[in-house]
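Example S7 (structure tokens).
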């Protein structure tokens, strides 16, 4: 049986303490151990952005991040940025602008857009495009996603 180390961090604003194998990636810890399935497994190579979460407020690919590297840090998933009642402004804008098709990539885009708007409440189109450049969508062509992010920023 592999060794397990103690791991302590804040998840969606709440303290978490658990035992974790040293080589376990954050995505597996979230989905399998903590049953937070909003973060998606896309490529396991860090190229699609479906697994994006916020670590200390910065978009991070959870499929490439060893869980032990979040020791003492704050991790926010799509579940954590969703208000208890209703939708976040970014989520609402995605719905209102039809920025989802199959929806598989949507959590990663919303997490990434949320980080962008927290750091820069009024991003330019170029800044939005740069921020989401690590997220892939095979359905929408990005136009509606960019419109939604601009609307959430109050640009539309």
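Recovered sequence:
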């Amino acid at each position: 049986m592999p060794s397990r180390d103690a791991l302590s961090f804040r998840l969606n604003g709440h303290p978490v303490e658990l035992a974790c194998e040293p080589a376990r990636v954050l995505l597996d810890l979230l989905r399998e151990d903590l049953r937070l399935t909003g973060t998606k497994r896309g490529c396991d190579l860090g190229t699609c952005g479906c697994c994006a979460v916020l670590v200390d407020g910065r978009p991070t690919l959870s499929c490439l991040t060893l869980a032990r590297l979040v020791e003492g840090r704050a991790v926010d998933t799509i579940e954590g940025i969703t208000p208890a009642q209703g939708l976040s402004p970014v989520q609402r804008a995605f719905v209102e602008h039809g920025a989802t098709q199959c929806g598989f990539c949507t959590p990663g885009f919303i997490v990434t857009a949320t980080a962008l708007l927290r750091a820069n409440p009024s991003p330019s189109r170029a800044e939005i495009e740069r921020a989401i450049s690590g997220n892939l969508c095979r359905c929408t062509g990005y136009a509606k996603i960019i419109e939604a992010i601009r609307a959430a920023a109050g640009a539309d």
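Notes on this example. The chain has two domains: 5-80, 89-152.
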